[in-house]
Amino acid sequence: MIDNIFSLKNKTIVITGGAGHLGKAMSEALAAFGANLFIVGYDEDKNKKYAMNLKDKYKLDVCIGGNIDLKDEDSIKIQLANIIDKTGKIDILINNAAFSCAGKVENMTNDDWCKGIDGTINGVFRVTKYTLQQMIKQQYGNIINIASMYGMVAPDSRIYGNSGFNNPANYGAGKAAIIQFTKYLATTYGNKNIRANSISPGPFPSCEVQKNKEFIKNLSSKNPLGRIGRPEDLQGIIVLLASDASSYLTGQNIAVDGGWTAW
């Protein structure tokens, strides 16, 4: 029915990094639309606390926080197996968690480069691999990967000035790989009723970064909408892609960036 096309009731959703800067807003939107939600990531205590808050606020039957270490396959397998034991399925996987390693190309060590790649595409691959095994058994599933505008375009070094901030090459390379990986999943597993799409957030600086007012001014002035992103700007798109409202949408990368990549 059209009146509940965005409902997530009875859908089991796993979101990595779901208690982080952007993850919190996405998790809340999923909870508000009734999902059975598993918030997983490196900080187990934070995940459990946030999951409990959402469970109480939205009167959910299932909203659980847990641990997943993107670097550790055993951690991933154990947590996903626990989720499947509890619910019998995984309807939707949202690969949001990531980590990087800053540095300029000319000074970056091989280990630093590899750490950034590991924290983006490799982590997404590991979690997707084991979730996909369950989705193939189910003969349905929905994978949403969080990429970045810097997987689509290069950073504009002019906006950083003397801020001390920079966006490292391994981050953008890893996020670009996520976009391609998403398209691969969509075309390879569509015949098993498995969808895959990615979201590329634009400028969503952390609260700490926002303390640098000059940098935020530069960031905002480059954007057609003239402002930085707010975490809640991602709530609509995550509900759309998770719900049956997007049932014929797969293989797409959607930029939520205030127009950044339109220049």
TrEMBL record:
What would you give as a GO molecular function for this chain, any one? oxidoreductase activity, acting on the CH-OH group of donors, NAD or NADP as acceptor
Tell me the keywords, alphabetical order. Oxidoreductase
- Say yes or no: keyword Oxidoreductase present: yes
Name its GO BP terms in alphabetical order: bile acid metabolic process; fatty acid elongation
**Organism domain of life:** Bacteria
- Indicate yes or no for the key word Transport: no
Q: Which family does it belong to?
A: Belongs to the short-chain dehydrogenases/reductases (SDR) family.
The protein depicted here goes by the name SDR family oxidoreductase
**What species is this protein from?**
Selenobaculum gibii
